[in-house]
Amino acid sequence: MNQRKLLKTATLAALLTSCAAGALQAQTAQPYQGVVGRMLADSKEWWPAPTQAPAGAPNVIWILLDDVGYGASNAFGGLVETPTLESLANNGLRYTNFHTTAICAPTRSALLTGRNSASVHVSGFSHTVLSAGFPGWDGRLPATAGTIAEILRDNGYNTFAVGKYGVTPDEEATDAGPFDHWPTGKGFDHFFGFLGSQTDQYKPDLVEDQAHVRPDGRHLSAQITDKAISYIDRQKKVAPNKPFFLYYAPGATHAPHQVDASWSDKYKGKFDAGWDAYREEVFQRQKKLGVIPANAVLPDRNPAIKPWDSLPPEEKKLYARFMEVYAGYLAYTDYEISRLVNHLKETGQLDNTLIFISVGDNGASKEGTLNGDIDRSLVTAPLPEKDNIAHNLGKIGEIGTPAAVEGNYPLGWAQAADTPFKQWKQDANAEGGTHNPLIVYWPKGIKDKGGIRPQYSHVIDVLPTTLDLIGVKPPEEIRSVKQQPVEGVSFADSIDNANAAWHHNEQYYYIFGSRAIYKDGWKAGLAYPSSFITGIAKANEAFDENAWELYNLNDDPTERIDLAKKNPEKLAELKAEFEAQAKAHNLYPLITWDDVLKGRIHAGKDKKSFAERVKDITKAGDSQ
Question: Which range marks the domain in which residue 285 is found?
Answer without folding.
Answer: 59-504
